[in-house]
Amino acid sequence: MPELPEMETYRQQLTRLIQNFPITGADVERPKSLNVDPELFIQKLTGNRIVRIERRAKHLLFLLGSGEVLLLHLMLGGWMFYGTEEEKPDRTSQVVIHFGSQHLYFIGLRLGYLHMHAIPEAEKVLSKLGPEPLEPSFTFARFQSLLKGKNGNLKMTLVDQSFLSGIGNCYSDEICFMASILPLRKLPSLTSEEHSRLFQAMRTVLLEAIQYGGYIDEPLFVGDRLTGQFDAKCRVYDREGEPCLRCGHPLVKTEVSSRKCFYCANCQS
Questions:
Q1: Where are the alpha helices (H) located in the chain, listed in sequence order?
Q2: Are 173 and 183 in contact (CB under 8 A)?
Q3: What is the DSSP secondary structure assignment for residue 176, as one 8-state letter?
Q4: CATH classification at residue 16
Q5: Can you list the positions of beta strands (E) in the chain?
Q6: How far, rounded to the nearest angstrom, does the alpha carbon of residue 162 sit from its chain's CA centroid?
Q7: What are the FPG-type domain coordinates in residue numbering (predicted)?
Q8: Is 259 a residue of the active site?
Q9: How far apart are CA 130 and CA 150, in angstroms?
Q10: Which of 23, 62, 129, 157 sits a CA distance of 20 to 30 A from 262?
C-alpha cells in the first residue's frame, strides 16, 4: 500500500504534469470507486481544472477550480499512470481523467477510492488522522507527549493513522531498524533516549524515501526515473533472510496483528 513518501512523490510529479491543465473528460469503469453518480462525476470534471494538489497522510487531494475536491486513497494495490492511450500499461483502470491526448489512469482501485467532496466534507473525512510526522510543528516534545499513556507495541502504534498519519508497514520497519529498536517492543519499555532515536529515524527515513521516490514499483509515466527508487534502498522491508547491513545476521520476518514485520533480531533490541 502506498504510504506517505509514495503519495508525496505522486503529488510532486503530478503537480507539474496536470495542475491548471484543462480537463477534457473522464471515464468511469467502476462506479464503486466513486461516491457520486458517474454521470455527475464526469459532468463536474469536464471543462474544470485541478488548481492545486495536496497530500494528507496517505491521501491525495485534487482541488478543483469549481471548489470541490477529489479525495484519493489508493489502498492496497492501487497506483496511477499518466500518458497517452498507447503508453498505458496493459492493466484495467477503474477511473480515467482526460487532459486532451494525455490521460491520468487510476489502476487497482478495488479497495481504494476517488471521492468528490465539498472542502468541509473532505476536512471532516480527514479529521481523525494523527499529525503529519514531517510538519515543522511536529516537534520531539509533541512526539513524546503522544507516546505517553500508550501501551501497545511499537510497530502497531507507528502504523495507527490516528496516532501519526502516513506511516505503514514498510516505513514502520525501516524507522525501527534505523533507530536500532525492535518493532515488537512495548511502548512503556522505551526510554527517553530511544524516543529521540525513533524521532530522528522517522524524519531521516521518510525524507530519504521521498528523495528517492518511495518504493512503489510502477512508474508514473514513460521515462519516470524517480518513482520507486527507494525500493532498492530498503534496509529490512521485504528482505527476509538477507544479511543485515549493520551486523550481517539474517533478517527476520514475522507477523504482528496480521501485518508483515521485518527486523534484525541481533542488532535491534
A1: 4-18, 38-45, 119-126, 140-147, 154-158, 169-178, 192-211
A2: yes
A3: H
A4: 3.20.190.10
A5: 25-28, 50-56, 59-64, 68-73, 79-83, 93-99, 102-107, 113-118, 252-256, 259-263
A6: 15
A7: 235-269
A8: yes
A9: 14
A10: 129
Q: Which of 56, 58, 155, 239 is catalytic?
A: 58
Looking at residue 219, which CATH number applies to its domain? 1.10.8.50
Residues 144 and 259 in one domain: yes
Residue 87 annotated as catalytic: no
Tell me how many domains the chain contains: 2
Q: What is the pLDDT of residue 149?
A: 84
Same domain, 164 and 80: no
Q: Which residue, chain included where needed, has cell 491543465?
A: 21
Q: Compute the Cα dihedral for 126, 127, 133, 134 and give only its sign.
A: positive
The one catalytic residue in 11, 44, 150, 259 is 259
- Is 160 found in the same domain as 83? no
> Percent of the chain having pLDDT more than 70?
100
Question: Does the active-site annotation cover 142?
Answer: no
* 234: in domain: yes
> pTM of the entire structure?
0.96
In the block, cell 513518501 appears at 5
Same domain (yes/no): 122, 150: no
Question: Which DSSP category does 167 fall into?
Answer: -
Residue 114's pLDDT is what? Answer: 98
Say whether both 177 and 85 belong to one domain: no
* pLDDT for position 1: 87
Active-site residue flag, 250: no
Whole-number pLDDT of residue 181: 98
Residue segments in the chain with a per-residue pLDDT below the cut of 70: none
Same domain, 80 and 166: no
